[in-house]
Amino acid sequence: MLGIAAAATFMSAPGQSFSVAAFVDPMLADLKLQRTNYSVAYMVATLIGGCALPFVGRLVDRLGARKVLPVVTLGLGTACAWMSQLTGEFGLYVGFTMIRCLGQGSLTLIANWIVGEWFHTYRGRAAGICGVGGTLSVLIVPQLNSLLINSYGWREAWMMLGASVVVCLVLPAIVFLRDRPEALGLLPDWEFPKIKTVAATELPEETARLAAVELLNKEQSFTVSEALRCSAFWKVASVVATVSLVGTGLIFHQVSILADVGVSREMAITCLGVQACAATFSTLLAGYLIDRMEARYVLACSMLLEICALLLLLFLPSPGWAFVYSALLGLHGGIIRSAGSMVWINYFGRRFQGSIQGISMSLMVLAAAFGPVPVALSVDYTGNYRAALMLFLALPTIAGIAVLSAAPPKKSVAK
After folding, report:
1. Which of these, 78, 218, 249, 306, could form a disulfide with 332 (CB 3.0-4.6 Å)?
2. Is 178:64 a contact under the CB 8 Å cutoff?
3. Is residue 200 over pLDDT 50?
4. SS3 191
5. Which of 15, 7, 4 is nearest to 133 (CA)?
6. How far is CA 104 from CA 59, 98, 199, 237, in A?
7. Which domains occur in the chain, in start order?
8. Which residue has the higher pLDDT, 1 or 18?
9. How many CB atoms lie within 10 A of CB 90?
10. What is the SS3 assignment for 211?
């Protein structure tokens, strides 16, 4: 289950900004599109795709990942095939909408859902391992895309991406994936119900299954409306939205932002690898920590790392410090991959986790759509990036202070 979740996170790449970035220049040259129109299409598609995620979350809660994951995977493969056949701007809007909703949003949501259902005591560590799939994707896919485009062309590269998604996910999901451990007479973390220790093997499988379901029913779970009424939901949401907005703005314009402080294009691209390596480490560490302390403290540390990265970028002593800046960003982003994905189920329970995560991811995707805008406006109106970076610095400061007071909510538990 964990392997499938990690693979789904890795294969969400076709809908992620770090993957799409490799296609921008060759597509613009071939389709004769203006960069502004291309960027607007990407922003509009991200907004539309983000609005669809609460529906996807409810669908996973109702039908389970075993049914939804193959459908989403086939849809993403189809979306990649659509991108390979583009001839104009309208088709670009349709294609971007499909890959952003199905790739960036839905596959990541489903992966988190699987981890949340199958793990409890080791949930954070499992989320860390799952998140490594995402950091490896950042490390591998952009270079792979560049190689495929240079060797075969951007249309063929889209086709190969789509085929790889389908091959890697559809059959494993159908054959191996199960939605919940209770259906197999188990509890999360691959444990047997404690009641089995009393009668050992004399208990029939159905009795064990019912015992597991009974224990699940006693677990604290919030409905969507109850979660939305909790201040903790919005404080945590402010963190993931800030990470998405600021991170997307910085990554989207990374080459030009670093060039403004004397960093070469080659070094700026190398910094992405440094960022991915640091994120791999912090993803695993944050997963370990979230099993041992409240998620709000781990998330506040993420905001502190982002603040340090932005301060360093504002006052970069020399170009070589760009590697330190990238490492800080990677450490900060890795924390969100594990702690930021599991905080929702830790705070609001398993029963409606897909629906609640669908709303949180929708907010995250919507924030990402606006991330590049402040940076572009700062350059257009002031001639440099300082105004945008100052704005970006304020956001994690506010979110970090807010999340420190986001204690896990309590409700009465059925006896």
Report:
1. 306
2. no
3. no
4. strand
5. 7
6. 17, 10, 47, 18
7. 1-181 (1.20.1250.20), 182-217 (no CATH), 226-348+371-405 (1.20.1250.20)
8. 1
9. 10
10. helix
Residue 223, SS3 per DSSP: coil
Cβ burial of 194 (10 Å; 0-12, 13-18, 19+) is exposed
Q: Is 187 helix (H, G, I), strand (E, B) or coil?
A: strand
CB 338 within 8 A of CB 128: yes
Beta carbons within 8 Å of 292's beta carbon, 6+ residues apart: 124
Alpha-carbon distance of 266 to 269, in angstroms, equals 5
350 has pLDDT over 60 = yes
List the alpha helices (DSSP H) in 32-107.
35-63, 65-84, 89-99
> What does the alpha-carbon distance between residue 408 and residue 230 come to, in Å, rounded to a whole number?
10
What ranges make up the beta strands (E) of 128-254? none
Pair 243, 306: CB distance under 8 Å = yes
CA dist 244 → 140, 238, 250, 337 (Å): 21, 10, 10, 11
Q: In this model, does residue 164 exceed pLDDT 90?
A: yes
